[in-house]
Amino acid sequence: MSELSTQQCEACHVDAPKVSEEELHQLMSQLPDWVPEVRDGIMMLERVYKFKNYKLAWAFANKVSELAEEEFHHPAILLEWGKVTVTWWTHAIKGLHKNDFICAAKTDQLL
Ligand SMILES: C[C@H](O)[C@H](O)[C@H]1CNC2=NC(N)=NC(=O)C2=N1
């Protein structure tokens, strides 16, 4: 299977399939710096990126926003001094879709 970061997101709809338990483990193995989190019953992918100051964190957050628009798939982004927390999940299915893993891999490429 090709690298996650080279794949394209597909249009997401309400009956798109969530990743299975087996797919989750296989995909997580390709994203060692990301962790699955469950919030309000919704499984998400999350990573905290550290930076030397606010300006560098802000610039990275902007790049993530641009990626989101390119893929038309949007994460939660928490911008703090020296830190950016990026959380991916698929709103339409209230869970994780393959798109979220592709976007997480693409997020790592922005560093
Ligand atoms: C209206 C709906 O939000 C849009 O179709 C897109 C935009 N970006 C999105 N981003 C994410 N993470 N999940 C979605 O389901 C999603 N849907």
From TrEMBL:
GO-annotated biological processes: tetrahydrobiopterin biosynthetic process
Reactions performed catalytically: (4aS,6R)-4a-hydroxy-L-erythro-5,6,7,8-tetrahydrobiopterin = (6R)-L-erythro-6,7-dihydrobiopterin + H2O
TM segment ranges: none
One Pfam family recorded for the sequence: Pterin_4a
A GO molecular function held by the record: 4-alpha-hydroxytetrahydrobiopterin dehydratase activity
Alphabetical keyword list: Lyase
EC code(s) of this entry: 4.2.1.96
Gene3D superfamilies (alphabetical): Transcriptional coactivator/pterin dehydratase
Family: Belongs to the pterin-4-alpha-carbinolamine dehydratase family.
Name the record gives this protein: Putative pterin-4-alpha-carbinolamine dehydratase
Provenance organism: Thalassotalea piscium
Lineage: Bacteria, Pseudomonadati, Pseudomonadota, Gammaproteobacteria, Alteromonadales
